[in-house]
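User: For this week's homework, look closely at the record that follows, marking any run of repeated tokens, and judge whether sequence predicts the tokens.
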Amino acid sequence: MSGHTHPCCKIGPSILCADLSCLADECRKMIHSGADYLHLDVMDGHFVPNLTFGHPIVKCLRPKMPDIYFDMHMMVQNPERWVESMADAGANQYTFHVEACEDIPALCRKIQESGMRVGVGLKPGTPVETILPYSDLFDVVLIMTVEPGFGGQSFMEDMMSKVQYLRTNFPYLDIEVDGGVGPNTIDVVAEAGANMIVSGTAITGASDPSQVIALLRNSVENAIQKSQLER
């Protein structure tokens, strides 16, 4: 998994929750509000019952924000099919779902060779043990705290046991959490050990997104500091 440096806090707004009719402006607004990266949800209507956008959108966004980290959450069947297209479009991280992949090592190698960081996502019903045999192949593990593809769900606090397990066993790993994360749920996420925080409407729908991002960051950084003192 990731190198031997303690993971730092990174906040990534989910742009699917923004106004897609002026996407570049919304993305810039998120970065100016203090976001560390942008989380882009790609859904194919098969792996999840929803359809969003693909690599052409990413390719259009990239020249408008050349230095921004694009985290692609690939909620798609046959994730190996889109690796080259996303790399060519300018994606930085390619997070596939373990449930959609038949050959995890081959896909991880393909992503690495394309120059992107490797992320693996777990649906709520997928045990964390599923990915342990391949633990040295990932840069990021994404723990879903809602069922992917459905909006308006409540945060699943019982998923924090997965985060705690990963943080205990892989102290240097980037652990990302996505689904229902906002000011009301961030403390439990931070205390479990997540350091990459995906948040949708809590940020994009806020009157002052920078205030929400600062609140999320403060919670995670406090938890990281506390855990390092306890070691």
Q: What stands out?
A: The CA atoms of residues 63 and 229 lie 42 Å apart. The beta strands are 10-13, 38-43, 70-75, 93-97, 117-122, 140-144, 174-178, 196-199. The first strand starts at residue 10 and ends at 13.
